[in-house]
Amino acid sequence: MDIDFLRKELKKIHIRNVPNADVEVVNDSSLKMIGKGRQGAVFAVTDDICVKVFGNEEDCEREYQALSMGKHTNLFPKVHDKGKLHIAMDMIKGVDLREYLQSQPLTPELSAKLIEMLLTFKEIGFERIDHHKRQIYLLEDGNLKVIDVARTIWRDRVYPYPRKLLNSFGEEIKQQFLSHVKELNPKLYDEWLHYIRMEELSRQICQVLMNESTKKQNLDKLCEKLLIRDNEKEYIKHLHGLVHKVFKEEWVKMMILKGMDPEKVMQKIDEHWDSLKREELQPSKKIRETKKSKVKLREANHVGVPKKRYEGAVVGIKMKPRRFY
Questions:
Q1: Tens of pLDDT along 144-186?
Q2: Are 95 and 138 in contact (CB under 8 A)?
Q3: What pLDDT, on the 0 to 100 scale, is given for residue 55?
Q4: Which of 172, 124, 173, 170 is nearest to 146 (CA)?
Q5: Which residues of 232-248 are buried (b: 16+ CB within 10 A; e: fewer)?
Q6: Domain boundary among 43, 63, 91
Q7: Predicted model pTM
Q8: Are residues 8 and 109 in the same domain?
Q9: Does 99 lie in the same domain as 205?
Q10: Which of 36, 84, 191, 218 could form a disulfide with 41 if both were Cys (CB 3.0 to 4.6 A apart)?
């Protein structure tokens, strides 16, 4: 392959990503486009080599990283050249699994190869242990090759079972594949079935929540119970706790950077905070002691004066005589 010629021709190709659609391609080169998708377009370079041109550098880097992670296996095409927006690799000569299953059955042997593919994904460190059937190719010798692996090392959602592969099969072939998995490894089958049932249950719960009518007026009234800002005592109490928590977290971070033991730092902070609380309580204690002293003083001034009441008059205190008619 003439790399200089390839790179010269690639300058005449422009790829633009389109949200939720295949890329837009402007091809003024001599290379023939043989396919395109969401990330880029593929062009034939020779009978044995193709080049994938991407719409952005990020997708190109992820694809190259994924191919590099699996280069010691036979599952991925060999890379011949890499640029900011292109990867030249072996041309895969085979039939993708989607087309194959339209005319041929899913055999236990093929299911075993698909499980081996997932196992390879796991062993080389892919984040998503899954792949769509249209991105899996069957070669003439019966082996598998995969393409478009950029999303296997990064994905915003990762499922605990090969959800994309199973759903791409359709219900009938999906059940055939699961039956083969059950025969090969019942434990793996049970785990996948568990997650499938959890997904079905989650979907049912979602429908219930979406169809449930919420009584907004009653909810507004109930929400009043969650408000504390207008209650000065509760507000100060919770604000005090919040400040304490933030101070503790930030101080621990700073001390960790200085190489100190975080447990000891938190203990010191708690001790310091407790001492502040005790100091805050001291004025109240003094007030109580002062009140007690005043009470004792009043009691001392009335020593000898009987407290027993008799007929509405305190004994020892002169009162005017009452007249009875």
A1: 999 999 888 776 566 889 999 999 999 999 999 999 999 999 9
A2: yes
A3: 94
A4: 124
A5: eeeeeeeeeeeeeeeeb
A6: 91
A7: 0.65
A8: no
A9: yes
A10: 36
